[in-house]
């Protein structure tokens, strides 16, 4: 229960700061990672430490791939390492899956609300076709600069709640 409460506290702090500034500060993420690792090491010994390290590595690794695609920011990557350090691999991956699904729904709602769906789809299609024709990722990188942005924590918090519910 301590693990879940601590993870939720970290998520709530990240939620508030991400909504205000579109950034998640290192003081939240790094503290979350180290406190999760320390807690599991102290309570469960080396087995707990490996549990936390494996969770942090899985959360960090998969979110880092999304970071390279410019889908999320660096704070989100470190936040998922913290989620993994506190709750382990399965919870981190479940939260990630539900968060990505929620982000897709939020993005779609924003596009429909702004009436930009057709424009965005044409832009994506053009960049993918350009990348295929030029055999370069440059058209996709250029198109990524104009992509829709919103605080990812709007999707992560519901994603974590769904992961807890289905746990």
UniProtKB/TrEMBL annotation:
The chain crosses the membrane at residues 26-42, 49-69, 89-112, 124-142, 148-166. It comes from the Bacteria. Keywords: Membrane, Transmembrane, Transmembrane helix. Pfam families: Peptidase_A24. The keyword Transmembrane helix applies. InterPro entries: Prepilin_IV_endopep_pep (IPR000045), Prepilin_peptidase/N-MTase (IPR050882). Residues 8-108 form the Prepilin type IV endopeptidase peptidase domain. The keyword Membrane applies. Belongs to the peptidase A24 family. This is Prepilin peptidase.
